[in-house]
Amino acid sequence: MKNADLMGSVASRRIKTLMRMAEERILEKKPAAKKLAQRYVKLALKISEHYKSNVPGDLKHRICKKCGNFLVPGINCTVRLVSSHGYAVYVCECGNEEHVFYKKRR
Ligand SMILES: [Zn+2]
User: Fold this and answer.
1) Long-range contacts of range 97-105, CB-CB < 8 Å, 24 or more positions apart?
2) Centroid of ligand 1 to alpha carbon of 88 (angstroms)
3) Global pTM?
4) What is the number of structural domains in the chain?
């Protein structure tokens, strides 16, 4: 294994750990814990940027691009399906919308 591969795997493991920790903080439903979750997300994005390691697809859609919240449906975001166009809309509590396609676009 090359050194770059090793760094990439360590970086992706750290990103996943930080995201898991962010979700745990959001589930605590406390204002201080929410700030901590935003910090974890920020750190994960910094690690991803520095090591050029992508945030996994399933986790990438769970970050608000405006405020950096980790989106947990029912706690800090609502999910609405737009079946005619084949996408889900994640609306963050800051008002930002994230569209996640579940149907292949033609
Ligand atoms: Zn937001």
Assistant:
1) 98/61, 98/64, 98/65, 98/71, 100/61
2) 16
3) 0.83
4) 1
Does 78 reside within a domain? yes
Q: What is the DSSP string of 57-104?
A: HHHHTTB-TTT-PBP-BTTTEEEEEETTTTEEEEEETTS-EEEEE-S-
CA of 11 to the centre of ligand 1 (A): 25
Is residue 28 in a domain?
Answer: yes
Q: What is the pLDDT along the chain (106 residues), one digit of tens a residue?
A: 678 788 888 888 999 999 999 999 999 988 888 899 999 999 999 999 998 888 888 888 889 999 988 999 999 999 999 999 999 999 999 999 999 999 887 6
Whether residue 106 is contained in a domain is answered as: no
Domain containing 44: what range?
Answer: 3-101
CA of 6 to the centre of ligand 1 (A): 33
| Rounded distance from Cα 66 to ligand 1 centre (Å) | 5
Ligand 1 geometric centre to CA of 5 (Å):
33
